[in-house]
From TrEMBL:
Region ranges (Disordered): 1-67
Lineage start: Bacteria, Bacillati, Actinomycetota, Actinomycetes, Kitasatosporales
Positions of transmembrane segments: 147-166, 172-190, 197-213, 219-238
Domain of life: Bacteria
Signal peptide: none
UniProt name for this protein: Putative integral membrane protein
Alphabetic keyword roster: Membrane, Transmembrane, Transmembrane helix
Coiled-coil zones: none
């Protein structure tokens, strides 16, 4: 199996939940009431909706001294959605990515302004911004390919757009950009990384054709690459961004990514039937996604995997099959023997040592 782990609810999971050893729990949980100070000296009653539907909090004012109170107005969804996302976050915050985002565009543009080359600084900042779009958790080699290949395509698109914009084609420039769009679509069909490259090729081609700058087209393309290179350099110089310790042998990040899947699988097998099972399941899914992208997502079609990479892909496929079996036991709430739960840790050590 070479796909991602897809976890769906067990049939009937939305209508009832299984208790210990398959005993169904009642459809309704006991209602939990709490009081929140009201705006006019009253209290607000909070009730929880039953299982089987989305949890909804209903507020109803409790009058005091025979008076009536109005409920506080609810905040709009566009304001509360980011806050809900922060509260629902499971796992550590990716502070290295946050730091790279803060140090990416701003310092590059500031350097251009300070040296009197504001247009060049803006172009380099544009390259850093597009590089951050493709900067996601991955191994060192995966991140370099994922950022570098789209950056090369984007610089070529910016060069083509600026060159076409300087030819004075008038309305015919639309036909020329349509040709660039066809090339972008063909490139996007190759794979996920090439898809990002195709998008940057098209977008920056249009930007280059419509944004007049004093620099010649080759200079604009070079400054765009400078911004993207700055992001790659930051990712390489900050050792904390790597989940695994680098080594001199080829492919240590890929081996570590596959071994992390077995570690997460062993952790999940240990906590099946406990309250920490769902958190362990999410960590397993995240580890599997990271390993899958390290072995598949950044590969160029004409690049053939070597023997070690094929072996790692086979081990990842085995981990995927084991994960599906363990997830079935998770939904059945069936604990596993300790001897069985210790097996993935031994497999993880085998993967790390080769």
């Amino acid at each position: 199996m070479h796909g991602r782990i897809g976890v769906t609810n067990k049939p009937g999971q939305n209508s009832k939940e299984a208790g210990p050893r398959g005993t169904p729990e009642p459809r309704f949980r006991p209602r939990r009431l709490s009081t929140i100070p009201g705006s006019h000296g009253g209290n607000t009653q909070v009730t929880k909706a039953p299982l089987g539907s989305r949890t909804v909090e209903e507020t109803a004012p409790i009058p005091e001294h025979g008076g009536s109170l109005r409920a506080l107005p609810a905040l709009p969804d566009w304001l509360t959605h980011p806050l809900r996302g922060v509260r629902a976050l499971r796992g550590p915050v990716p502070w290295p990515a946050v730091l790279r985002g803060a140090l990416g565009v701003g310092p590059v543009v500031a350097a251009g302004v300070a040296t009197g080359n504001t247009p060049a600084g803006v172009t380099a900042g544009l390259g850093a911004m597009f590089a951050h779009i493709n900067d996601r958790p991955a191994t060192r080699r995966t991140r370099t390919v994922r950022i570098g290949l789209p950056a090369l395509a984007g610089s070529f698109g910016l060069f083509m757009g600026a060159w076409l914009g300087g030819l004075g084609l008038g309305p015919w420039i639309a036909l020329a950009l349509a040709t660039v769009g066809l090339l972008s679509g063909a490139l996007s069909a190759v794979g996920p990384v090439c898809s990002s490259a195709g998008v940057q090729l098209m977008v920056l081609g249009v930007v280059g054709a419509g944004m007049p700058l004093p620099e010649p087209p080759p200079m604009r393309a070079a400054m765009l690459l400078v911004g993207a290179t700055w992001v790659i350099v930051m990712a390489s110089l900050l050792p904390m961004v790597h989940r695994f310790r680098p080594a001199a042998a080829p492919g240590p990040d890929e081996r570590g990514a596959v071994a992390a899947v077995y570690d997460a699988l062993g952790e999940l097998m240990t906590v099946v039937g406990t309250e920490g099972a769902q958190a362990a399941r999410r960590r397993l899914t995240s580890a599997y996604d990271t390993a899958y992208e390290a072995l598949y997502a950044h590969r160029i079609p004409w690049q053939r995997p070597d023997e070690e990479e094929r072996r790692l892909r086979d081990r990842l496929a085995v981990a995927g099959g084991l994960s599906e079996a363990v997830l079935t036991l998770l939904w059945e709430n069936e604990p596993l023997p300790a001897r069985v739960a210790r097996t993935p840790a031994q497999l993880a050590r085998s993967v790390r040592t080769g």
